[in-house]
Amino acid sequence: MLKHTFGVKRLFWRIFIAFWLASLLVMIATGFVLVNKFSSDEYNKRFFNDVVSQAERIVWRYEQDLATSGGAKVKLKDWVNNKHNRDGHLIPMLIKNDNGKTVYHYRLNKIKLKDRTEQHVTGPSNREYQVHIRKPKAPRIYKQVLYRFQSLQFGFIFIASALVSALLSWSIILPLNYLGAFSRRYANQQEVAILPRKLIARGDELGDLALDIDFMINKTHAAASAQQQLLHDVSHELRAPLARLQASAALIEQKSPDSRHVKQIHNDCLRIDQLIQQILDYSKLEQGSPTVENCDLNALCQHVVDNMAVNYPGIPVHFTARGKIELAGYPEALLQALDNIIGNACKYSANGELVEVSTLARELSVVVTVRDHGPGVDDEEMSKLSQPFYRAGNQMHTNGFGLGLSIAVKAINKHNGELRMSSPDDGGLCVEIILPRTLP
Amino acid sequence: MENDKYKVLLVDDDITLCDLLSEFLQEDGFAVETLNSGDAAILRLMETDEFDTVVLDIMMPGMSGLDVLRTVRAKRHVPILMLTGRGDDIDRIVGLEMGADDYLAKPCNPRELGARIRAIIRRTQQGNSSNIVHAQLHGIVLDSGTRTALVNNIALPLTGAEFNALSLLMERAGQTISKQDMTQEVLNRPLEAYDRAMDVHVSRIRQKLAAVSIQDVIKSVRGVGYQMLTEPQLQQEKG
């Protein structure tokens, strides 16, 4: 799950990029419209102003020339070409008087008729003149837009929109991530935690989602505890008829001592009782955790090893403790794990075959190794061993239910530990229990 | 003949089971009376001393077996055998610490129940029979005739099982006695897996000795059993 945290596929980046792009597009479009509308109007106005002022000067000079001499045309050209007499660059234009006679012409012939437009000016003598000019053409709009966007203002807007988009993304993703982490935590620990009120009280869709998850967790928990309770109650209730059955069998036995079937009944009663006990142990491990205690692992191992001498008098169990090993944990669960694993080693060993148990302290974890010299387990079967009610197929043991190892695995998982099994080259089975020193 | 039979009080809320067990135990040679609630058991036990053993189910609705045990033990010394669930370690230890003599996992084979009752009766009546021993060590004086342990002429309040365990340890002072042997000799039964009875009895003896300032005289030998130190051994340990 971690490898996607920063990928483009993450919702955070998708929302961020979408909002950012959208806000940038809106800004560019707005800029475009503004430039298009106001800038070109302004340009045209300035252009015509320039044209009129230049034309008026030329007309004024023309009328002066006309009044003083006949060769007005030549003198006007000379006057215009003198840059002391003109204001700015020369605009291509053609000026005609009210008789249609050309008074002044500068480079307008290159411009097609359809690109021309005309203005009217009035000379000092109140005569009207037609001024032909090229239609004003504002420079390309995108150039203006780009020019505007290169400014510092735009830089600020750019950063601000990125920040706002990121903030928006976060505000959506943060509660989602929290909900995800929350449900993962719940799934791992099987404990009812309460979602923060703040999240539920949001009132928006995320609040609804939180409410739904809260509802789901409560439902799941209710279902799980109902199942645990049922298992527990059924197991307990089975014991009462079992006790009566045993008592009745004993009465039959008392009255006809040679009944061989009664022995069978007794054996099966014992077996059912053991199964009930294992189911109870298993369901107890599923239930909420008891308080964490400081456990002396060597003492727990020694305790279990001592008891093996009672149950399996023919199997020598050697215990080697290396150093003082203490860890935070649930002693009851650890005892069950050790009892089942060391018990299995003894069960699958023939009389006289050595079972070795040793402990080892590491910096952050502790390891219990249980090694037997029995028939061992096939590699492919090893992974199935911890499933409830699974029994290794190459064993014809009727003594057991296949629950032992699942109980052990559950107890070890409760400590965030790990169970490793391997087949040593010289036969038998080697089981390692690795437990962290502290619980998370 | 009727008067020679040992009298057993059977307390269990399961009426059918009580009837079946009572029938079995009567056939096995006991005089059995059954009661189906904790309150009734307390009333009956307070009014009479006639029972040789009480078999008490721990899991009972209302007043539990442990409540009965606590109330009865304060006034009566009748031997009590608890019936506990197989996995209920805590109940067992609490029960033994409250002064129960032994426990048996339920459901059980009634023959085993009969054997346990017999074992308890045999050991509470041991003192009444033969070989009276007077032992003395660390200032503890044992009189197996009267089944009392005296320290500075004051009697230690020991239960039957505790007295037997202490006298066995003193008899073989200096030797390590295995838990198997102790269970066999003190409780008259073989050691079971995860059997805490002997540990609880020994720890209770230690507490009672410590209360009269006798400390560290019983040593635990890890993985084996217990040892009562002789006086030179105790000097050495302390030195």
Automatic annotation (TrEMBL), chain A:
Keywords: ATP-binding, Cell membrane, Kinase, Membrane, Nucleotide-binding, Phosphoprotein, Transferase, Transmembrane, Transmembrane helix, Two-component regulatory system. The keyword Glycoprotein does not apply. It is found in: Cell membrane. It catalyses: ATP + protein L-histidine = ADP + protein N-phospho-L-histidine. The chain crosses the membrane at residues 12-35, 154-176. It is an enzyme of class 2 (transferase). It comes from Paraglaciecola polaris LMG 21857. Its EC number is 2.7.13.3. It is a multi-pass membrane protein. GO terms for molecular function: ATP binding; phosphorelay sensor kinase activity. The keyword Transmembrane applies. Its main location: membrane. Signal peptide: none annotated. Residues 233-439 form the Histidine kinase domain. This is histidine kinase. PROSITE patterns: HIS_KIN (PS50109). SMART domains: HATPase_c (SM00387), HisKA (SM00388). InterPro entries: HATPase_C_sf, HATPase_dom, His_kinase_dom, HisK_dim/P_dom, HisK_dim/P_sf, HssS/ArlS-like, Sig_transdc_His_kin-like_C. GO terms for cellular component: plasma membrane.
Automatic annotation (TrEMBL), chain B:
Residues 129-230 form the OmpR/PhoB-type domain. The keyword Coiled coil does not apply. The modification 4-aspartylphosphate is found at D57. Residues 7-121 form the Response regulatory domain. It comes from the Bacteria. Residues 129-230 bind DNA. One of its GO terms (cellular component) is protein-DNA complex. Keywords: Cytoplasm, DNA-binding, Phosphoprotein, Transcription, Transcription regulation, Two-component regulatory system. This is Transcriptional regulatory protein CpxR. It comes from Paraglaciecola polaris LMG 21857.
